[in-house]
Amino acid sequence: MYDSNPTLEGIKTIDEAKQGNVLFKEHWQESSVPGGKKFYIESYGCQMNFSDSEIVASILNDVGYSPTRNVEESDLILINTCSIREKAEETVRKRLRFFESIKKQRPGTKVGVLGCMAERLKKQWLEEEKLVDLVVGPDAYRDLPNLIGGAEEGHRLINVLLSREETYADINPVRLESNGITAFISIMRGCDNMCSFCVVPFTRGRERSRDPFSILAEATGLFENGYREVTLLGQNVDSFKWENPETGERVNFANLLEMTALIHPNLRVRFSTSHPKDMTDDVLHVMAKYDNICKYIHLPVQSGNSRVLEMMNRTYDRPWYEDRIEAIRRILPDAAVSSDIITGFCSETEEEHRDTLNIVEWANFSMSYMFFYSERPGTLAARKYADDIPEEVKKRRLNEIIRLQNAVSLRHNQADIGKTFNVLIEGNSRKSDLDFCGRNTQNKMMVFPKKEGLKPGDYALVRVKDATSATLLGEIV
Ligand code: SAH
Ligand code: SF4
Ligand code: F3S
Fold first, then answer.
1. Which of 134, 161, 189, 386 is 20 to 30 A from 226, comparing alpha carbons?
2. For the segment 294-312, what is each residue's pLDDT rounded down to a tens digit?
3. Measuring from atom 21 of ligand 1, which residue has the nearest CA?
4. What's 251's DSSP letter?
5. Whose CA is nearest to atom 2 of ligand 2?
6. Residues 21-36: pLDDT tens digits?
């Protein structure tokens, strides 16, 4: 059974939590000193990287650097990089060519490579890329002021030390590019799984969980500043674990989720990513208990075939995954489940590929992020298996998966026509200022005509009138 009575010790009142004092956009705009230095940051990869950029912004803010959206006026250009697939790395290389042209116009400008590619390639950067002044890995951002100081004196510096403890728990992220309504909170860092295709354990280091009270303080601070949704982030949130060093009290993910839900009924809680091997029924029961925990689970399957899953070292097989989906259907009948899928993994046969197609159908994923396999240097798969599926086969299989997933998503969405959902209004729709957009509990984007008196951050009951594979179209009831 899950602990149905988690304590909120350490965060007794909202005022106390506010002393956690999350730093918001308005603060940094005020703090931008005329004539002060400016940094420009671009982020790639997963949400955790975007979250890290907000931590970097906060660290830089403290030493007098303010953010700018205009790269041409920046004194420091930072690129927070991703190594997950070859294409992600190629994109970064292309951006560096562009930054090179900026640096030619403003020779004093410093360029720093942050994140997963910094960690993966380390000092190779300094050897191969003349324009790079700084190389900083994901656990070394506290060292940025020092490194930047050195770069200003003309040195080229690197810090790619990984840490077993660093969670940046005490750093209040500067919310960059925020809609002021939804925010992401990193609850852990690193990953201790060793999926054979994946570079993350190498670029992000060992898994560690953040002090839950700092998480709750951050979420509470956000709520008090008008935010209405937080997404708890980790590579594998189900393995969140923390022990109070003084009392020995333990907090697992189900407990953390419940504590976050208890902050306020109007604060929605989401999380990502769940791992099929670790997702417990306790988490599902907590989700069922609180209306403000969104009924949506991102549960990447990767492949529908047990042999391929074994080679991927995912540590579950197809029956196990199916059992997890059945548990969701039993405990949370209205929840939507989405997935990540890789096609053309080493030695995958046509029949095994068809197993992935039919699990998409069977699991009825509301949507999926779909990729063809990209071998990453140093990973288990790169060392053990031949990357032997020709690229055109990988891509053909990927297209088959995408086509099927689109049809399944459309069917999933069409089944919502006539239903009414509580939607958190996030802002204007992308296509028209006359429409609002916002997501329902299942994480489906809904678009609907505005109504007088309602604004972003409000909740509205919206009835679905029509659906595409990506969006529900509705009207406020
Ligand atoms: N921690 C998450 C995934 C993080 S990476 C999890 O375990 O589910 C996001 C997704 O990128 C993965 O789920 C996988 O589908 C994809 N991915 C990771 N490495 C890849 C590779 N080498 N080639 C293609 N896709 C990959
Ligand atoms: Fe990569 Fe697997 Fe960790 Fe996800 S769980 S980050 S896929 S190693
Ligand atoms: Fe990419 Fe690093 Fe995230 S490799 S997906 S940015 S953890």
1. 189
2. 999 999 999 999 999 999 9
3. 374
4. E
5. 195
6. 233 333 344 345 556 8
